[in-house]
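G., the chain you wanted modeled:
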Amino acid sequence: MLICTPSVDNNSPKSETSTTTRLTNSLQEHLETLQSLLATTLVDIERSGQVVCDALAKGKKVLICGNGGSAADAQHIAAELVGRYEKDRRSFPAIALTTDTSALTAVSNDYGFDEVFARQVAGLAQSGDVLVAISTSGRSQNVLNAVRKARETGCLTIALTGAGGEPLASACDLAVIVPAQRTSRIQEAHITIGHLWCEMVDGMIG
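Predicted structure as tokens:
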């Protein structure tokens, strides 16, 4: 007589344990990154946030650029400034240079992708404006070119980058360097920093 034995997935408990460990490690890494920000980078966050507040208080605007996840952060920060963060207050001029598909494709087609942000800075920026340049690696050429053009125009420049984020950090007037190597952890910290800046705007000039 053939006896059928129920199949047992021997990998299931191991898989569940492995996933739990992976998620636990990632969350722990996230917390450690934010603790490092608090311990080593708070002064830079406050100083750069003050630059943003001063510019907005004078009627100047904030331009923000980055690629991929950093493009999403640029849009997120701009939306909080134009719309609202946590309280009703006046709208502030902030532009993410990642959102105009016609400009992005035209500039990329005519001048190359390395100029996609610099060309917009040339057309939109004025002296006294602020450019927030986001790159986890610090090596994105289109972001570096935007910084160069912004400084030629008389803008103040702020780098948001990660550990070892050169040459971007040195190219900008101010740099907030997240003390982490892993892209995901750096990006999580960047949007936290953006929120802290918006909190300063709400509290100081909102």
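The helical segments are 11-40, 42-57, 69-82, 101-111, 118-124, 141-153, 168-171, 183-204.

Shout if anything looks off.
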